[in-house]
Design goal:
Order of helices and strands: HHHEEHEEEE
Number of strands: 6
Shape: globular
Strand order of the largest sheet: 2-1-6-5-4-3
Radius of gyration: 15 Å
């Protein structure tokens, strides 16, 4: 089912969505606009968000100060690498990525913050949007 080699150019915007989210982070408005209006977003610790507005609020809360674990996102940036992709149709792609957050003074994602993400992206008209995102924390990165 991995037809992506022949269709990479056609699906380039779909394949680039995870990097677009990482580049937009932590701008809540820019991040949320990459998600479909009725999208689903599952955070690594299990919180489930439904819809673009909830995703925007989640990122607003994260960037307003410290999160519920006391972590400030000031100076933090996100990185992600696409590891696998499956083109299901001309308007539907599934991606698996690996990445996480890099905090000030760090050169790479700390082992406890590394995650594997699954993205379902689909095309609405001429725009690719994220329909579903799920992040799983990597407990043993070795």
């Amino acid at each position: 089912m991995n037809k992506y080699n022949a269709q990479d150019r056609h699906n380039r915007n779909a394949i680039d969505l995870p990097k677009a989210v990482a580049q937009a982070f932590p701008d809540s408005e820019a991040v949320s606009q990459l998600f479909a209006e009725d999208s689903s977003f599952v955070v690594a610790e299990g919180t489930v968000l439904s819809g673009r507005a909830a995703i925007r609020k989640y990122f607003d809360d994260l960037t307003a100060g410290a999160d519920k674990w006391g972590t400030s996102l000031k100076g933090v940036h996100s990185v992600v690498d696409v590891e696998w992709k499956a083109v299901l149709s001309e308007s539907s792609v599934i991606l698996r990525t690996r990445g996480g957050l890099i905090f000030p003074g760090e050169e790479d994602v700390a082992p406890g913050r590394l995650g594997v993400q699954t993205w379902t992206v689909h095309r609405e008209g001429d725009q690719w949007l994220i329909a579903s995102y799920q992040n799983t924390r990597v407990l043993d990165p070795s």
